[in-house]
Design a protein that fits this description.
This protein has 396 residues and is of the alpha/beta class. The chain is built from eleven helices and 17 strands. The chain binds flavin-adenine dinucleotide. The site of flavin-adenine dinucleotide (FAD) has 33 residues, from helix 2, strand 2, strand 3, strand 16 and helix 6.
């Protein structure tokens, strides 16, 4: 039977794989898949109409991690310290602190997708409904309906899930151009300086010096009750004033509220799409870092999809690292007044290479034991007692 033209237009489009969300995780996977010549049909669904330079991705990485097309800057050293105390410096020659400007990353991914006829990126479409079918999934967007054999969901987690996080990492940053050059050391990132309590919540400064007159300056909170955007703005203004940078030209701003210790919501009784990115637990609970994990996952997932047509879920930390992170967060949640001392001790007493392995999910047992040994005992013992029942129950 022939369908009338209008109905034919409304008939769902069939595809092999739908990637929901074209942010860091969705685009990373699409870019990796675009390297293959033998793909079925792949659709990336993204509400944005255009991509902006909306974030800075930083991490420690050596040269062998194939990130060179987007690498914007790297720094050999980092500094840290409590407010009103002398800043300390550390360095790790093999693993500099690296920076990726998000717009460079987005453009590189968009170019790879454009060059691959099997992958279609639908901008301006938001998924409103995802329904499990006996075989595959029905996806409804504001503009269209699709039937996909497989779905990878990288949309932001729902608010109910975000609300269950132990803490929020909340920050506001401004990329600024100074009217005059400063004496600032352009070889050193201010990783966690001015560490202090503000209204009972732990707060610190983060500065990426691109040039003597060009910086990214951020105020960051690890908080149970994150400050409002206005209060963050006031903190940032105060920081710029203290440093003598109030008259700088603001090139752009970036803002985030990242979950720290967000439980994953798995329902074994229901068919679930594969999850990745922040929704799949990509962010390290104790730090909020997720970029490298997403890149590693995207490479593994693309390799497997190209080989046998199946997907791999987001890589998270190993069992013991997860538990260590959750205890660490429990201390920060219940004893924020000790956070500055704890981070100061961790950063000053842990060897740089060990700290980086720990941050990059490559810690050995000896690294974990050394880190535990350098931290103050009582806050962690109290956290362990408070946390024991959940610690044994939670595995996400
Ligand atoms: C400002 C900022 C700075 C950060 N800095 C660092 C850093 O220095 N180092 C680090 O390791 N990590 C950092 N992170 C954390 C993490 O790496 C990023 O959040 C990363 O973008 C997470 O990737 P994602 O794909 O999960 O989420 P996103 O990149 O946010 O992608 C999710 C996508 O889903 C789309 N979407 C939303 N609703 C729908 C819908 N209904 N249907 C379809 N799509 C939808 C969104 O538009 C978005 O494109 C930072 C995060 C932020 C926000």
């Amino acid at each position: 039977m022939r369908m009338p033209a209008a109905d034919a237009q409304r008939a769902p489009k069939h595809i092999d794989l739908a990637i929901l969300g074209g942010g860091c995780a969705g685009l990373s996977l699409a870019r990796e898949l675009a390297k293959s010549q033998t793909l079925g049909s792949i659709l990336v669904i993204e509400p944005r109409q255009t991509y902006q330079d909306d974030r800075s991705w930083c991490f420690w990485a050596n040269d062998s991690q194939a990130l060179s097309p987007w690498l914007g800057h790297s720094w050999p050293r980092w500094s840290f310290g409590k407010i009103d105390a002398q800043q300390q410096h550390r360095a790790c020659d093999d693993y500099p602190y690296r920076y990726v400007r998000s717009i460079d990353f987005y453009r590189a991914c968009l170019a790879a997708i454009k060059a691959c006829p099997a992958i279609d990126l639908k901008l301006g479409q938001a998924v409103s409904e995802l329904t499990a079918l006996q075989s595959g999934w029905q996806i409804t967007t504001n503009d269209d309906t699709y039937i996909a054999q497989q779905v990878l969901d990288t949309r932001p987690p729902p608010q109910t899930q975000l609300d269950q996080s132990t803490l929020q990492q909340c920050f506001l940053g401004a990329e600024i151009k100074l009217r005059r050059r400063t004496e600032i050391d352009t070889e050193t990132v201010e990783l966690m300086t001015d560490m202090r309590l503000v209204d009972g919540e732990f707060c610190f400064t983060y500065v990426l010096p691109f040039a003597p007159d060009h910086l990214l300056v951020e105020v960051t909170f690890f908080a149970k009750y994150p400050p409002t955007r206005l209060s963050l703005q006031n903190q940032l203004n105060q920081l710029l004033a203290t440093r003598g940078w109030s008259d700088a030209e603001i090139l752009r701003t970036e803002f985030a509220e990242l979950p720290m210790g967000m439980p994953l919501m798995m329902n074994a009784k229901q068919k679930q799409p594969m999850l990745a990115g922040m929704r799949g637990g990509a962010l390290r609970p104790s730090s909020g870092y997720g970029f490298l994990r997403i890149q590693n996952w995207a490479q593994r997932c693309a390799k497997q999809y190209i080989a046998d047509g199946t997907l791999v879920g987001q890589t998270t930390s190993g069992f013991w690292i997860q538990k260590m992170d959750l205890i660490f967060l429990n201390v920060l949640q219940h004893e924020p007044a000790r956070a500055a001392e704890i981070f100061d001790t961790l950063l000053s007493k842990t060897k740089p290479a060990r700290l980086i392995r720990f941050m990059n999910d490559q810690a050995t047992l000896s690294d974990c034991l050394q880190i535990v040994a350098c931290l103050p005992k009582w806050p962690f013992l109290r956290a362990l007692l408070r946390f024991l029942p959940t610690l044994l129950a939670r595995s996400d």
